[in-house]
Amino acid sequence: MSDLETTSAPSAAPSAGESGPPAAHTQLKKVKKQKVLLMGKSGSGKSSMRSIIFSNYLARDTRRLGATIDIDLSHVKFLGNLTLNLWDCGGQEAFMENYLSQQRAHVFSNVGVLIYVFDIESRDVERDLATYVNIISALVQYSREAKVFVLIHKMDLVQPITREDVFDQRAALVRRKTAEAVAIMHKAKPELQQQQRLPTHPRMTSPTLEPDIDLQLFATSIWDQSLYKAWASIIHDLVPNLAVIETQLASLGVAIDADEILLFERTSFLVVSKWASREGDRNPYGDRFERMSNILKSWKHTCSKYTGTPRNAEQFSDFEYKMGTTFSMFATKFTTNTYILVCMPPGEARFNSAKLNVAAARTWFKFLDGPAVPAAASIPGAGGVMSSPHMIAGTPSTYAADWRMAAPSD
């Protein structure tokens, strides 16, 4: 990832049962900006999905959005230490030709991520793919290390029984065209192309070439959770300090005996990180994380509607749901830039103890609110001394034991 600054800081808190200062140090990273290109044919749904994810629009509200003229440049803050320099590029043919000729170096230099949107209902697939090939060629020329996410959009317009097959066919075609574009830029020899061949796709008449580029494809629609799945994957790869976040989240999950924990970005409610116990891993619903993003975003809209607050403001601080003897769940404001959702076995004492422990653990995640700045600090009762205000060198079980002593019994 480009444009990174690193500062040394103590490692994540050790797992439950360990004690003493951490033995190793982790590099905390501070990202200045990440340039993200959002491209695709005019009317493919680029601005609609951007407005839903980052501006809290409802899907039905996007109908009043007009076509993007040239480049709509916005700076989207995500967490406290990541800024997305988002370029929403108009998809009219005249604009596309301009991007690929006069503005080629300006548009495609220093790109961290390209998000390309295909309209599955387009009647001119060949022209769409030709434009895509030209864009990939320009990206390879100026930003060889950029990641590419291709969204096959408006899948709600395809009959449910054929959606998987339609997506597989289009994805295979996009992969082949991507590989061809890369091969053209590299002036690859025929024998080199032969070495890159993959097994023939069952629905294609010719073998596909493996693209020499970091490419991921998603089937999306603004009317369901598929949009959150795609964008959460995009953001996940850009979040700095992800390893530290995951380690901290795992320590917290073990300490409070949770089944699953989700960490959401405050405004978009995209999943930043998640953790599951062995019991949580047995959950058969693979899309449950995106569903929770969708549910909480809808709840936020409902609160906004009945309180009259702006859609980007905070509408709630706590959300609780108890399903009898099946499970309990709560979502609460965690740090300045995040919400946390905890799912756990039933039990009032366990539930109250977990809420108190989550409140106590906020200090572990202070680095999510801004760049890490090493400084000496200590926290009473933390079980250790911090050499940075962002990371605790104590045991998670210290919090758990202290709070559970005060928790009410069943």
TrEMBL record:
Residues 1-32 are annotated as: Disordered. GO terms for molecular function: GTP binding; GTPase activity. One of its GO terms (biological process) is cellular response to starvation. Pfam families: Gtr1_RagA. One of its GO terms (cellular component) is fungal-type vacuole membrane. Keywords: Cytoplasm, GTP-binding, Nucleotide-binding. It comes from the Eukaryota. Belongs to the GTR/RAG GTP-binding protein family. Component of the GSE complex. GTPase involved in activation of the TORC1 signaling pathway, which promotes growth and represses autophagy in nutrient-rich conditions. This is GTP-binding protein.
